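Thread: assembly with ligand

MN 10:42: here's the input set. Chains plus the small molecule as SMILES. Want everything predicted jointly, not piecewise.
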Amino acid sequence: MTPQAATARATRVAELLRDSERAVVLTGAGVSVPSGIPDFRTPGKGLWEKVDPMEVAHINAFRSDPDRFWSFYSQRFVGLVEKRPNRAHEAIAELERRGLVRGVITQNIDRLHRMAGSRQVVEVHGSIDRCVCPQCGGRVRLDEVLDLLSSGASTPECSACIAPLKPDVVLFGELLPEDAMAEAHALSREADLMLAVGSSLEVFPVASLPGITLESGGLLALVTQGPTPYDSDAEVKLDGDVVAELDAVMAAL
Ligand SMILES: [Zn+2]
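BT 11:07: finished. Tokens for the full assembly:
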């Protein structure tokens, strides 16, 4: 693609954002890759290299052997805690500040959208921001969980019922959080524009949301490397690096 064509596409996305009234952003793992968080579906990357995520991050693994679950998951927590938002997260937060998007629906659990300043964030896979007690429903903040782990607890426990705490993220084998899903569906249905960033749009629930927007008459714009099932439905697709592409969109606004 020529640089002129790339600029024209970014300008088109900027135009769509300006012309819409109820735009929403949908993000996947690709938006956090520039922050140093690999997509675990990419084989041979870091923490997920030697384990099968379907097995270690499964609700049955948590229930049957919480110590073993946490010996893996605590590394994941500590790895994610150090990460910082990148310019793609910042651009998305800026769009909300300027009133150009209503909010962001994300499948990422890394809370980087909130750290970047996004206020309306729907986390359909939950967040590492807290753990929950499966017995009493109590919530424990991430910093307290990290304190428990660094003081030598192999499994962080609820101080009230001594039950193993569960990260407030959707593990394999678990249902998606109803409230977040209802909110994601409503935002998608009401959206006159969905900007999908850094997602191959192949994994449920994120895969179903652009279809909801399209069926309600909204438009779709994609900022994603690699093919998606929605490529032919999209008004425009930017397929370069997410940070560079969103920079170009912001410059064209
Ligand atoms: Zn409890």
